[in-house]
Amino acid sequence: MAQNNKRTNDGSASPPPLKRQKIGAASSSSAVSTSAAQILQLQQRLQSAEDEVVRLQERLQLQEEENQRLHALNTSIKEGFRRYGPSWNGKTTDLDIIDNLTRLSPLATHYNTNVTNQFIRDIPEMLWWQKILQPFLNLEDLSILRCTNTFFQSYWESVLKQNLIRVPQGCPTLEKAMALAVVFSERKEYTEADPLKVEMDEGVYEITDSNYVPYSEDDDEEEGDDGLMHVPCSHITFVGKGKDQTTILGGFYVDGKIHVKFEELAITNQHGSGLICTGSETNVDVLKCCFKCDDTGMGVYSGATVTATQ
C-alpha cells in the first residue's frame, strides 16, 4: 500500500483507481435513468387518477341532477294528489297550455251554456237524417242516447209526435216494438183518433216471446196456446203492407184493452190461436186480415167486442 501510494505521489497513473471511477460513473447514470422512468410512471398514474376524479365528478353531477328531478317529480305527484285527489293521473292543464289557449282564443268558437244546440243548429236537417242519425234509427238505442245530447232529446220528442213505430226499421222485432210501445204510452196519452201505430214492412215476423196460457195448467186436454203476444196498451194499431205481403207467425192476446186494431195482416199460428180477445172492456177492430191457425183463428170471450171487416 505504501508503494502504491508512493507511485501515485510520483504522478504515475494507477489502473485500479481508474477502474473504480468508471464503475461509479456507470452506477450513477443507471440510477438517474431509473429515477426518470419512475417519475414518468408516477406522472401517468397521477394523470389517470385526475381523469378518474373528473369522471366521478361528472357522474356525481348527473346523479345530483337526477335526484333533483326525482324530488321535483315526487313533490309534483304529492301536490297533484293533494289538489286533485287519489285518482289523479298526472295530467292537468299547465301554464303553457293555458298560454297557447289564450293566444288561440280569438280563433275559437266558444261554448255558451245558455244557447241550446249552438254547435248543431246550422246543420241541415237532411244531413242529420241521412248521415248523423243513420246509426241511431233503432228507437231502442235512441231512447238511451237521448240523455247524452239535447238534439237527441229533441229528435226523441219528434218521434213521439209521429205516433209511429216501424218494424224492422225502428225496432227489429215485434217484441221490442211492444216494449217500446209501453214506453211511448207512459209518456203520451193516445186516443182513438190519435192512436199509436206499429207499422210492419213486407216480410214474415215470428213471435218468439209468448207470455199467455189461456187454459189452466191442470187441464190435461188443453195445454194452452203457444206464440201469443200480449198487447200491453190501448189505442194501438198493428198494420202491415197487405195480407199477401206481411205475415205474423204466432198470435195476439188482448185483455181489457180498448181501440186495438189489426189491419192488412196474415196471422198464422201452427201451435195455437191467431187472436184471443177477452174481457168486457176489450174492443178490437180487424180490417183486411187473414187467419190461418191450427186452433181458433179468432176467439172472443167474456164479453169482448170485435169488429171484423173483409
Structure notes:
The structure is a single chain. The protein is of the alpha/beta class and 310 residues long. It folds into two domains: 2-84; 163-309, no CATH class. Helices cover 42% and strands 19% of the residues. It has helices at 2-9, 15-84, 95-104, 125-132, 139-145, 150-162, 174-187, and strands spanning 164-167, 196-200, 203-206, 228-230, 236-239, 246-249, 251-255, 260-263, 266-269, 275-278, 283-287, 290-293, 298-301, 305-309. The strands form three sheets. Strands 1-2-5-8-11-14 form a six-stranded parallel sheet. Strand 1, helix 7 and strand 2 (196-200) form a beta-alpha-beta unit. The longest helix has 70 residues, at 15-84. It is rod-shaped and about 140 Å long.
Write the layout of secondary structure elements.
Elements: H1 2-9, H2 15-84, H3 95-104, H4 125-132, H5 139-145, H6 150-162, E1 164-167, H7 174-187, E2 196-200, E3 203-206, E4 228-230, E5 236-239, E6 246-249, E7 251-255, E8 260-263, E9 266-269, E10 275-278, E11 283-287, E12 290-293, E13 298-301, E14 305-309
Parallel strand pairs: 1-2, 2-5, 3-6, 4-7, 5-8, 6-9, 7-10, 8-11, 9-12, 10-13, 11-14
Concise overview:
With 310 residues, the protein is α/β, with parallel strands linked by helices.
